[in-house]
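Write out the bound-state structure for S-adenosylmethionine.
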Amino acid sequence: MDKEIEKYILFMQERFALDMSIFDESFLERTITWRMQITSCESMNKYLSYLEKEADEPQLLTDQLRNSHSEFFRNPLTFAFLEQSVIPKIFSEAVKNQVSEVRIWSAGCASGQEAFSLAMLFDDYTISRSVNVGFRIFATDLSVKAIDLAKSGLFDFKSVKNTSLELAQKYFHRRGENYLVDQKIKERIDFSLYDLLEMGSSSPPSSIYGDFDLILCCNVLFYYQPEYQQMILQKFFRSLKPGGFLITGEAETNIVSSFGAFRAHAEPAAIFVKK
Ligand SMILES: C[S@@+](CC[C@H](N)C(=O)[O-])C[C@H]1O[C@@H](n2cnc3c(N)ncnc32)[C@H](O)[C@@H]1O
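---
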């Protein structure tokens, strides 16, 4: 590991008990460089001194490492495949096996944009096809702030702009400049705090048992070193039903492929099936 980066890891560990060694090194470098630009520090050493002196900066660096950016229907290709291929398959299996409720996990859900997008698609599908199977979404993140925002269900235009007019008219209510998610959609989702690197369980305690038909974990894996990516994927493998679907960010496709326990379902979308 780069000597400069090691100094940061040591500093944050000793002063704030934050283990930065779990993060992917190039992601760490990019994040530090970003904070260096904002704080007008010209070198890694200067920024380290700044980090030591400025009381707010360690938190700002940590927030940047825990980036919670998200949007409704963030990746159009993924959501198109979900609507046309994954959701119909999940419900046809549920009907065939006489399952009363489909179970979904949005892991690293940020402020809930992904979970709400899923709930809208699932609700629309069951109503338009008169499907008599329920669904429940468990949505988890380690950020208290993000989960609190998710529970409010209130979003600005930038977050919701990819939502189709049809779904927006069905599932949002205008509140001044903002958009409030319909109560019926909110009730489908159980938001809770859960650290994906917590190794005492394979699925969030709120779900009681895993047995998920679908897990979405988008734009989370690439933050971590390979050994931590593997730990998270192990967790998903254990908590998915046989034949269950795993969806990640497109930039994370190689991480899942090299894990070996999932096969690609719909290339080039990052959609996989448990082998
Ligand atoms: C960039 S956001 C992605 C949000 C959403 N999945 C999406 O693609 O739009 C990454 C989220 O993962 C969460 N996260 C990162 N590491 C995590 C962990 N170990 N356990 C739970 N959540 C984590 C962060 O708090 C953040 O909200």
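---
The first strand starts at residue 101 and ends at 107.
The pocket of S-adenosylmethionine is lined by residues 66-70, 74, 108-110, 113-114, 141-143, 146, 195-197, 218-220, 249 (CB under 6 Å).
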